[in-house]
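Tip: read the tokens left to right.
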């Protein structure tokens, strides 16, 4: 009997210790923000990743608790997350709550109208980012912070872990290449959560000074390996693709297919004219890409799915793949498109590839900038490194 009691107590302690280590996203800390919403007109900037629990979305939870929700702002991929990259998102009504969905990604709306901005007092932000300068969710947030500053609205960011938050890498954006895939003078891999990047943007004067509060994650630091429970967008379906994304997304600025229209987007790359390769794939229309590059053509290239996650995280951005494809096709400038500079953020990378430099030589060009940025970002970190 006593032995059974000891075993039961030990099991309870083990369960408590395990739960204590579980990463809890900001949305779960309801006492830190729900009471503040009482009597306020509330808008939400969120998408399908803003889950309050395994079975309930943040918007559904707020609606259930009687929060006065006046609108839902939808970023790229839409509120429920089913629209492919770059496609316009239209205004609609959320079927579950009846709340109006207002698109921030319809090709026209840089920010809401004055009338819409006057319709709410508080903006709640909750989206799962992946820590890349060219991933657009943080841009939607920064634009809304600017608008909220103009109209005196407070901003509450419900923070989530950054799956690429354990390192910082890549060139800092030259602001002459500022675009919808690069908004702030930060590296490609910035090592910040959404809450931290909001704090830094306001603190450094990159965004207007809105009243900002960040509801932190619990049991999290920047070395925590956080497995995303929901794919953040249609073409990042796996954790492995998210780790490859900082490197493979650069192919968006070239003639190379990075696997859109296959079951392994951002985990493979190839081109119809890359010969002598054992691996091949044929892009076809699917839910993540209606018209993928090289649609219906056999592409020869490389399959990166067997590279260990630990290796990807330790090596950071790896230009060897872009250089490999560039040298194989021997197309010169025609290999690149103007999107390449918008993604990499500077002009010297394309030039150095054409001039024949290897990956290490090119990557060394941004090493000092990275160290300076890491020092600058220290005062905005909410979690230890």
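Filled-in amino acids:
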């Amino acid at each position: 009997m006593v032995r059974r009691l000891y075993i039961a107590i030990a099991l309870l302690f083990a369960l408590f210790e395990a739960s204590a280590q579980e990463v809890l996203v900001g949305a779960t800390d309801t006492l830190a923000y729900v009471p503040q919403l009482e009597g306020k007109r509330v808008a939400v900037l969120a998408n399908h990743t803003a889950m309050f629990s395994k079975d309930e979305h943040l918007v559904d939870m707020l609606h259930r608790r009687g929060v006065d929700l006046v609108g839902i702002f939808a970023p790229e991929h839409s509120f429920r997350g089913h629209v492919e990259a770059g496609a316009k998102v239209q205004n609609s009504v959320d079927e579950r709550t009846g709340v109006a969905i207002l698109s921030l990604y319809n090709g026209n709306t840089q920010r809401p109208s004055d009338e819409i901005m006057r319709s709410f007092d508080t903006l709640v932000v909750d989206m799962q980012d992946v820590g890349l300068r060219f991933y657009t969710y943080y841009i939607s947030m920064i634009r809304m912070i600017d608008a909220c500053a103009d109209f005196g609205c407070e901003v509450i960011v419900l923070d989530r872990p950054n799956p690429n938050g354990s390192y910082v890498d890549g060139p800092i954006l030259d602001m002459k290449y500022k675009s919808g895939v690069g908004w702030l003078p930060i590296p490609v891999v910035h090592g910040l959560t959404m809450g931290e990047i909001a704090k830094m943007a306001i603190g450094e004067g990159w965004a207007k000074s809105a009243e900002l509060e960040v509801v932190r994650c619990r049991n999290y630091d920047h070395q925590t390996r956080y497995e995303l429970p929901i794919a953040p967008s249609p073409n990042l379906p796996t954790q492995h693709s998210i780790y490859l994304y900082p490197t493979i997304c650069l192919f968006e600025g070239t003639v190379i297919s990075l696997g859109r229209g296959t079951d392994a987007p951002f985990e493979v790359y190839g081109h119809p004219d890359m010969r002598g390769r054992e691996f091949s794939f044929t892009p076809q229309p699917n839910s993540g890409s209606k018209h993928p590059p090289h649609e219906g053509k056999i592409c020869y290239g490389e399959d990166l799915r067997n590279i260990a996650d630990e290796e990807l995280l330790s090596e950071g951005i790896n230009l060897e793949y872009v250089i490999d494809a560039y040298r194989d096709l021997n197309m010169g400038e025609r290999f690149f498109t103007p999107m390449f500079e918008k993604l990499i953020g500077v002009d010297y990378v394309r030039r150095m590839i054409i001039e024949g430099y290897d990956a290490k030589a090119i990557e060394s060009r941004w090493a000092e900038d990275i160290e300076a940025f890491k020092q600058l970002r220290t005062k905005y970190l909410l979690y230890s490194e």
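The CA atoms of residues 111 and 143 lie 7 Å apart. The longest helix spans residues 2-21.
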